[in-house]
Write a structure and sequence with these properties.
Blueprint lengths: L15 H10 L4 H11 L1 E3 H7 L5 H13 L3 E5 L6 E5 L1 H4 L2 H14 L1 H10 L1
Antiparallel strand pairs: 1-3, 2-3
């Protein structure tokens, strides 16, 4: 246990690294972007936008820049071409087990809610 996280009975505080991680992963659309890049490996902006369809181009562009600054996504440019591609860095690819755990949790706990939403919508 890290020294930032205290035992029961003491004052509880979250580890700053944990809080930083959730400030990245908890931001709307970041998880979806990471998930697409985990499965599709390299994507052009328009293809990525197609996978994360409800995210506006402006927000997608902002999120990609933020993920690039965090060292999770790499933006590849090609000299003499207008082509730009995005892929995960090694740091981003190491999120695969985290995303798998989120899938497992959602498979177990979100099915009833999703069924209800589909009936309403």
């Amino acid at each position: 246990m890290s020294k930032e996280m205290t035992l029961a009975g003491d004052d509880f505080s979250l580890c700053p690294k944990f809080a930083k991680t959730f400030s990245i992963l908890g931001k709307k659309w970041n998880g979806m972007i990471i998930e697409v890049l985990l499965h599709e490996k390299t994507q052009r902006f328009k293809d990525l936008a197609g996978h994360v369809a409800k995210c506006s181009d402006r927000v997608l562009c902002e999120r990609l820049k933020e993920l690039e600054q965090e060292g999770i996504v790499e933006r590849k440019t090609f000299p003499g071409e207008s082509r730009i591609e995005y892929c995960l860095t090694d740091r981003g690819a190491e999120l695969a087990p985290v995303m798998a755990a989120v899938h497992a949790w959602s498979d177990k706990w979100c099915e009833a809610e999703l069924d209800q939403m589909q009936k309403i919508g």
